[in-house]
Protein: DoxX family protein
Organism: Boudabousia tangfeifanii
Amino acid sequence: MNILRTIIRPLIAAPFIADGLDAMRRPAPHAKKISPFKPTLRRLGLGVVADNPELASRALGAVTVGAAGMLALGKMPRTTAAVLTAISVPLAIVNTASEKDMRAKVSTGIQRGALTGAMVLASLDRAGAPSAAWLANSWVTDKMNRASAQLDQVKNNAEASLEAASQKLSNVTK
């Protein structure tokens, strides 16, 4: 593992761990932020979340702490970063909307956007390994090159056999 990844992953996971722990310990302030979104949650089929916002805050906090902890430890980093990305988008909307004045909204929006961007980058980080698309393309190219080489060999053998048969035929007719 690259030394930078060893340092950076815990750094970008830390805000998620802190926020998740706070949501588990003190769910009421987090649940309060959901209140304006209750009708939307019900329309989306998430009535359970709208009816039990403290339980939802605790559960989301636990998932956040688990995923961020795994990211910090380098366990399944792309998967855990993708989970945190999926979590961070609605949280960014809720947290930004819950701010009272415009300056706080802008600041929270920028911070949450930066964290979401960091998670997107972490979810795409292959640690230097090639992508599946590159591997597939490389495999196809290799197979095509081998097939072309075999075709050339068959063609050369056929031409040599034809030449030999032609020589024999000309010897017989003489």
About this structure: The radius of gyration is 30 Å. The chain is about 85% helix and 0% strand. The mean pLDDT is 90.
